[in-house]
């Protein structure tokens, strides 16, 4: 390695290997200044010599600032892998091949990456050496990606099918299954987006024909009670005419049908995806592949004396993890309460500083509250990831795949509450604990709690969903693309101003070094982003029927964005083998069940669907039978507003014009004498609960029937597997008969 201060000559170890002309499997990079430290150089040499003993050769090349080590494994490592897993690649590989098949590049990289990351020299792993600065980084070279650049990683290919087999050959099965799932999810969003858009546009057809909107727009003589503390102006109900019409776009009779449709859609989407996955896995000859067997084989390749690590379970550790997880969930719920505090204080501030007109204050609070929630989500995402990692380390999973599965469950649970806790508050709590005019519930005894929008709580939920989902899709996609692109361009410009090698091999390593780094979470983050989007697309979709359309547009961009990022802007991901999307499938099924419950509760408790139906058949003019000349909802607006007498205000002097007004109206079902909850409120509550139970049972039954009706595995796949098993047994029987005859 030379003495301190020496420069390193261009050298190659084991140059006599017949594979010397082949590309490198892996590249390690060290800072040239670090080579001058004797201890650093000694640790580096120890690690490289340990790799050499395991059957690797390496070549060291340097430019002005960096030292690059090309790593390549000898063929005997892959011969051992082929021997150990000869019959684990699936039914199609059970017959003995005529000769040794070449090891795919993705398999080579996966094996080399495993051995490198599990190699220990003088007690130091590769991660330890990177953290201590012995090596700066490590990566896999991009080689042979030209076809993917032309056919996949281009914006003009946005509507073309994805080359899943080529993606698998280059990035491995894990990445290929992600894009196969994302492509199928995007394809299935087309009918959901079409139905959601139809439900939304059907509201336009009745934009001016709705009886409720007509009554609100003509209610010039109905005054709404003052809502704020600082401005006590009585507002005409007709002032909310525009918002009443807009609310009817997504709070109409089609909402219930669309919610049931989305429950069925989510089930059909998952069931058909399982069938798609089975076909793809059989095509890849991985139907019988076992992940545990693969990991044990890699451990044996790395250490011949590897001892099996058995499964373990500790009730103490599980209890501690459960308690800590509950505390973190409580923190997420606390973040929702922080949003409540913000909205209350913002309402008081906007009213007092004259930044907005009084009728604009509620809308301003909703919009800024959604922006505040988006910022909280960004912060808590980083916190949740750190907490989930610490909990996984404490649990001590047996293998990397088990660790990934446990981390997925913990991180998604925390992220779910971070994203949806404020929506739960708006949908089911906002405006329901405020009391009534003259006796309002106050925060810390000072500030009046926020109320729903004048047109109803569905408008608050719609705006919150639209803003958060719009920001998450647009800003996240822009940051996801522009961030790596700008970082790569800046590094490239600095490099061109500095040094450039004439050696094509070294130049290739330099180019890959300048690309954006990748890590274990690179693909995980893409999956998590899609799971959260799937949650927004299905949960609370009754309040925001345009969610599938936004998700469809976003996914068309996301597929090509991820492709360009992986092929052009990032270092090559280490290929990983898989035959399904793992724990994410259980996450999708859980979201589907939560969507049924949430949408049922939105229709029952947040929308005006149940009060309208009850009025139509129990209180309205059609309660004794249909009357063609009269709309069945005539009088509903007056029926749904309670009366408050201005003399009962605690501070009537502050109310503007109170000397000429004797009563005002507010949204609730209360008695006019003592303002207690009226009989109509309890009748509505009972019917709401009954509807919720019926809706959930019907929707869940539809999901179960759809899941039973669509088999997870196509019969053609089952028959193919059966034929392969039968052929293998016949071959063994024939071989046995021949040996007996001899």
UniProtKB/TrEMBL annotation:
Residues 167-723 form the Anoctamin transmembrane domain. Pfam families: Anoctamin (PF04547). Keywords: Membrane, Transmembrane, Transmembrane helix. The chain crosses the membrane at residues 175-201, 255-273, 319-341, 361-380, 411-433, 531-561, 581-605. It is a multi-pass membrane protein. One of its GO terms (molecular function) is chloride channel activity. Its main location: membrane. It is found in: Membrane. GO terms for cellular component: plasma membrane. Belongs to the anoctamin family. This is Anoctamin. It comes from Canis lupus dingo. The gene is ANO9.
């Amino acid at each position: 390695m030379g003495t301190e201060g020496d420069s390193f000559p261009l050298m190659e170890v084991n140059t006599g290997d017949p594979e010397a002309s082949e590309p490198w499997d892996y590249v390690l990079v060290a800072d040239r200044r670090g080579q001058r430290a004797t201890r650093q150089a000694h640790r580096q040499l120890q690690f490289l010599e340990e790799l050499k003993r395991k059957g690797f050769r390496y070549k060291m090349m340097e430019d002005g600032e960096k030292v690059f080590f090309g790593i390549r494994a000898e063929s005997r490592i892959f011969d051992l892998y082929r021997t150990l897993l000869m019959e684990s690649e699936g039914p199609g590989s059970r017959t003995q091949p005529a000769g040794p098949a070449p090891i795919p590049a993705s398999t080579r990289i996966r094996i080399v990456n495993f051995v490198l990351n599990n190699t220990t020299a003088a007690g130091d792993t590769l991660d330890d050496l990177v953290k201590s600065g012995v090596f700066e980084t490590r990566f896999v070279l991009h080689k042979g990606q030209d076809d993917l650049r032309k056919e996949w990683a281009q914006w003009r290919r946005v509507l073309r099918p994805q080359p899943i087999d080529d993606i698998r050959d280059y990035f491995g099965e894990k990445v290929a299954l992600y894009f196969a799932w994302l492509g199928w999810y995007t394809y299935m969003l087309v009918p959901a987006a079409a139905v959601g858009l139809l439900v939304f546009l059907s509201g336009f057809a009745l934009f001016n024909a709705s009886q409720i909107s007509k009554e609100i727009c003509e209610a010039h003589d109905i005054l709404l009670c003052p809502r704020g503390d600082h401005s006590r102006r009585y507002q005409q109900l007709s002032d909310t005419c525009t918002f009443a019409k807009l609310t009817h776009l997504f709070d109409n009779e089609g909402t219930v049908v669309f919610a049931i449709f989305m429950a069925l859609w989510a089930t059909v989407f998952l069931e058909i995806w399982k069938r798609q996955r089975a076909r793809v896995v059989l095509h890849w000859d991985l139907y019988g592949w076992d992940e545990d067997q693969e990991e044990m084989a890699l451990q044996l390749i790395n250490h011949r004396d590897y001892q099996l690590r058995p499964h373990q379970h500790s009730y103490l550790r599980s209890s501690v993890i459960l308690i800590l997880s509950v505390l973190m969930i409580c923190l997420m719920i606390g973040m929702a309460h922080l949003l409540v505090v913000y909205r209350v204080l913002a309402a008081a501030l906007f009213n007092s500083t004259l930044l907005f007109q009084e009728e604009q204050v509620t809308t301003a609070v909703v919009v800024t509250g959604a922006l505040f929630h988006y910022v909280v989500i960004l912060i808590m995402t980083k916190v949740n990831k750190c907490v989930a990692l610490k909990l996984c380390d404490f649990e001590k999973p047996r293998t990397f795949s088990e660790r990934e599965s446990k981390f997925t469950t913990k991180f998604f649970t925390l992220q779910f509450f971070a994203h949806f806790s404020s929506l739960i508050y708006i949908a089911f709590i906002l405006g329901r604990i405020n009391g009534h005019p003259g006796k309002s519930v106050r925060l810390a005894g000072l500030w009046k709690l926020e109320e729903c929008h004048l047109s109803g709580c569905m408008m608050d939920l719609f705006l919150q969903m639209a803003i958060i989902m719009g920001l998450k899709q647009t800003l996240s996609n822009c940051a996801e693309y522009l961030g790596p692109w700008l970082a790569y361009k800046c590094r490239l410009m600095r490099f061109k101003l500095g040094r450039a090698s004439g050696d094509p091999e070294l130049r290739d390593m330099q180019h890959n070094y300048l690309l954006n780094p990748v890590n274990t979470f690179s693909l995980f983050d893409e999956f998590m982003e899609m799971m959260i989007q799937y949650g927004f697309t299905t949960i609370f979709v009754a309040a925001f029927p345009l969610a599938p359309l936004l998700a469809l547009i976003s996914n068309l961009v996301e597929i090509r964005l991820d492709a360009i990022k992986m092929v052009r802007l990032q270092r090559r991901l280490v290929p990983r083998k898989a035959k399904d999307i793992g724990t994410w499938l259980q996450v999708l099924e859980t979201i589907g069940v939560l969507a049924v419950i949430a949408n049922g509760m939105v229709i029952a408790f947040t929308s005006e669907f149940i009060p309208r139906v009850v009025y139509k058949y129990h209180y309205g003019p059609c309660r004794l039978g249909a009357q063609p000349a009269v709309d069945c909802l005539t009088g509903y607006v007056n029926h749904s507003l309670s009366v408050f007498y201005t003399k009962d205000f605690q501070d009537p002097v502050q109310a503007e014009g109170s000397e000429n007004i004797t009563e005002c109206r507010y949204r609730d079902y209360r008695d006019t004498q003592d303002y207690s909850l009226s009989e109509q409120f309890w009748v509505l509550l009972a019917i709401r609960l009954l509807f919720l139970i019926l809706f959930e049972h019907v929707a869940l039954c539809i999901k179960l029937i759809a899941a039973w009706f669509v088999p997870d595995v196509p019969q053609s796949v089952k028959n193919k597997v059966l034929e392969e098993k039968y052929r293998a047994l016949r071959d063994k029987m024939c071989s046995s008969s021949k040996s007996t005859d001899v």
